[in-house]
Write a structure and sequence with these properties.
- The complex is a heterodimer.
- Chain A is an alpha+beta fold.
- Chain A has three domains: about 80 residues, Helix Hairpins (Orthogonal Bundle); about 50 residues, SH3 type barrels (Roll); about 80 residues, Alpha-Beta Plaits.
- Helix content of chain A is about 50%, strand content about 20%.
- Chain A is built from eight helices and ten strands.
- In chain A, the strands form three sheets. Chain A has a five-stranded antiparallel sheet.
- In chain A, α2 runs antiparallel to α3 and α7 crosses α8.
- The longest helix of chain A is centred in the N-terminal third of the chain and has 29 residues.
- By secondary structure, chain B is mainly beta.
- Chain B has two domains: about 90 residues, no CATH class; about 150 residues, no CATH class.
- Chain B contains no helices and 24 strands.
- In chain B, the strands form five sheets. In chain B, strands 10, 15, 18, 19, 20, 21, 22 and 23 form an eight-stranded mixed sheet that branches.
- In chain B, a hairpin with a 3-residue loop joins β3 and β4.
- The relative contact order of chain B is 0.17.
- Classes of the chains: A alpha+beta, B mainly beta.
- At the A-B interface, β8 of A face β13 of B.
Amino acid sequence: MADFWTTLGSYLSGGMVWGIVRALILIALGALVGRVLAGLATRVFRHSLDPHQTLLLRRVVFYLILGLAVASALHQLGFRLGVLLGAAGVLSVALAFASQTSASNLISGVFLLWERPFGVGDVIRVAGITGEILSVDPLSIKLRTFDNLFVRIPNETILKSEVTNLTRFPIRRLDMPIGVAYRSDIAQVREVLMGIADRDPRCLAEPEPMVMVLGFGDSAVNLQFSVWVRRENFLAVRTDLHAAILEAFAEAGIEIPFPHRSIQLGQGPMLPVRLEGGETSGG
Amino acid sequence: MQERVADDGAWCGDFELAAGELRQWRIGPMTLVIQRGAREWRLRRHQGEDPLDPASGVRSLTGFPDWLPERDEERFIHEGRDSVIRLQPRLPDRAVVGRPVAPVRVPAGGSARVYLSVPLWVVIGIGNPQRVLAEYPTFQPSDTWFGPSPVEGELCYAVRTRCRLSLEDTDRSPARAVIPLRIRNDAGDVLALERVSVPAPLLSLYRDAGGRFWTEAVDMRRVERDASAEVTPQAGPPQEAGEARRVEGPRRASGRSSVMRAFGVLFQG
């Protein structure tokens, strides 16, 4: 028992424990100061930076200060940083092989930060997924889809894929393909469509709405009705205009044809068809 | 379907409503019905199709008209003390873009005075100091884009009525204000005036003795051979308004004059 107390006393008098305590205090202080300075930097630059840049600045300041605190703590414990860095150099070769994917994502993240095709809050479509960006992190971006799912997409995927930013510009063009019967008067169709756009104040007066004839389809003359809208109104206007077109076409007697299919049996027996009236015929 | 109001009284100002009383306002194309409940203000409105509807007036009703559906009703809770409701006219909250009846060309060194009529907004408030309950356009103008391309520009309102060279031809309605514009072309080439953008949120609103609404006259001086102009709102009511009094200040404060994109040509998207 006496030996135990002697050993403990020698540890305490040797300063090892106090060194660890001091190191822990340094790290805790570093984390605290880092958090305070990161918040301060965010407040100072909040008017000149967008949310994405603010998030990045906050993280850089915090981790820089925390890194310095950890280095000081290691120094306090008697580690020689030069030796550590040398060992880290050897270790990094091994780590590089082990973490190729992470490194690739990290470097892709740097390129994305430099190129800035989107920022936090933008709505993007990538690899068939559409959603609002919650954060842009060193390894991945996080999206919230419109059905409220959380999606993590690695930065490497983003860099390699086609990314569409749906909220980059304040206005968008809404294209609606429409088919009308061959006997329709195209001038009348155009007038009806332009009237619909004119009555809806959400359709921009300029750039002006357009009706284009795209060509002759199997069962319809193919048109495209294009109107410009504010990006916030895009979905609502798309729904309302389709409903308004159906109503206005019905009122004006303009037919929207649908493909008809004829079935002909080769060598088999005639297909009996029964009508609602009860008559039977071959066909 | 629409009721017409014979009363030509002014639609703006303070109105005292007894508990449970319903009152209807006709403000050009907009019909507004407000009821003072025990603990709430109930509000229904309808926008007609004619932006130049001349109807104006206030009258009491015994019940909400059938053509104002309950599903569109808005309710504002209050503490029961306020019996006075205030209706104030305001200018649009974005710049407005107008076109002349036919394209007008202003030669180098020349000037033109044109008039643009814009729909008013109505601010509904209670109490002193006033608490705003709601704000509505008397006629919702179309959105439009004013700029050289769909990427660069500003979201504005398009006014359906055209800029007029003569005040007599300018559209008159109790729910519209007239903006007199003096366009001076000091650049070296002819200015083809196809569209003009007026910064309505920077202007004040005046009302003349006949009840017509005006803004101060706006000087637009084109110096460079481009679409920009030095825009300067003149102090006080325009000379055409005679003895007019100011009823509302600008939505946004600004300096005496500013250079902005004021003239535009059409582009296709």
